[in-house]
Q: What sequence folds into this?
């Protein structure tokens, strides 16, 4: 069992920055991979960024060059640095984790463990 708690959301003007954090506790497998997802009103949950068990990262095209995912060495905290924010980045952001053998990192179907979400609002 893995427990995830997000923090760091808030309101910011377009062009601004925010850093989201996700505290990870419970059984942290050496094969654990983690990701950030978001859901805007009226939309499904979208994969934003993910990091695999070896530290390799992948991003949605919509955030490449603006968002950076990272984690601490113990894999107990996951981060999402968001720069050059746009109004279309407004959403509830969730962190997720799992440890399956062959995940599709930006697919929500690859994750069983989810945080409760943190709201990000970007105004124009």
A:
């Amino acid at each position: 069992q893995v427990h995830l708690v997000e923090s760091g959301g808030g309101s910011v003007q377009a062009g601004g920055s925010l850093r989201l954090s996700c505290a990870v506790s419970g059984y942290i497998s050496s094969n654990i991979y983690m990701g950030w997802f978001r859901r805007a009103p009226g939309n499904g949950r979208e994969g934003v960024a993910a990091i695999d068990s070896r530290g390799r990262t992948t991003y949605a095209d919509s955030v490449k060059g603006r968002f950076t995912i990272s984690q601490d060495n113990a894999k107990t905290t996951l981060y999402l640095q968001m720069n050059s924010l746009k109004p279309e980045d407004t959403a509830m952001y969730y962190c997720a984790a799992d440890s399956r053998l062959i995940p599709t990192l930006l697919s929500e179907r690859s994750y069983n463990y989810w945080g409760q979400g943190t709201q990000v609002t970007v105004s124009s």
Observations:
- The chain has a mean pLDDT of 96.
- The CA atoms of residues 27 and 84 lie 35 Å apart.
- The radius of gyration is 13 Å.
- The chain has no helices and eleven strands.
